[in-house]
Specification:
initiation factor; Cyclin A, domain 1; Transcription initiation factor IIB; 70% helix; protein biosynthesis; mainly alpha; elongated; TFIIB
């Protein structure tokens, strides 16, 4: 194979390939750097633990390797990674809460979350009770309401929990427990679901826990 003398300059084609390589490499590095900065920003906004921060970075790295990040908003993919990481540690952030804090459309978050979960096979389930602490802070409910909501969730049958949005179920329990201090619209906003979904879950909670329904009636 004929070798080019060391003094011979690379051809125009080779220069183009080398230039393209550096552009892609630098672009990828910049994307990762932007993602890490955004993770730090979210960490401060959401008071994320170090474990969740580290796991979020790992998930984003996996997404970059699988090219899930290509052509997609870095912020949306990072948010999806945060949600998955928080669920893995059973300290889930409700989609509505993150959407509000980051001023991101819930639909964009759901799309990114679905793509990351499917591409990386990251499916983690959290029970409704795990969402209570993340919902109570923005809703401003007191400890007694939280205790009642926990009791309501404990009384729910698996049939009324399985396959349903756990944050919506937790929010519905809080609504019933709050006895009119918060609205279904408030619950829907922080949970990241529709008011109709909350209304249905509230009806189920009242059916399973009639003592609170009678008290409010």
């Amino acid at each position: 194979m004929e070798q080019r003398p060391e003094s011979q300059a690379p051809s125009q084609t080779e220069q183009s390939i080398w230039s393209d390589y550096h552009t892609v490499k630098n672009s990828t590095e910049q994307q990762v750097a932007t993602a890490l900065e955004y993770i730090e920003e979210l960490s401060a906004q959401l008071n994320m633990s170090d474990q969740i921060c580290i796991r979020t970075a790992e998930i984003y790295g996996q997404a970059a390797i699988e090219q899930t990040t290509d052509g997609r908003s870095t912020e949306a993919i990072v948010i999806a990674a945060v949600i998955i990481a928080s669920r893995e540690f059973q300290k889930p952030y409700a989609i509505g809460r993150i959407a509000s804090v980051t001023d991101t459309d819930v639909r964009d978050i759901r799309q990114a979350l679905s793509r990351v979960k499917n591409d990386l096979y990251l499916y983690t389930h959290c029970p409704p009770r795990a969402y209570l602490s993340k919902l109570t802070e923005p809703l401003g409910v007191d400890d007694s309401t939280i205790t009642i909501a926990q009791t309501i969730l404990d009384d729910l049958s698996n049939e009324n929990i399985g396959g349903k949005h756990p944050a919506a179920v937790a929010g519905a329990a809080l609504y019933v427990a709050a006895d009119g201090d918060i609205t279904q619209r408030d619950i829907a906003k922080v949970s990241g679901v529709t008011t109709e979904t909350v209304r249905i879950r509230v009806k189920e909670c009242r059916k399973e826990h009639p003592s609170e329904s009678n008290k409010q009636g």
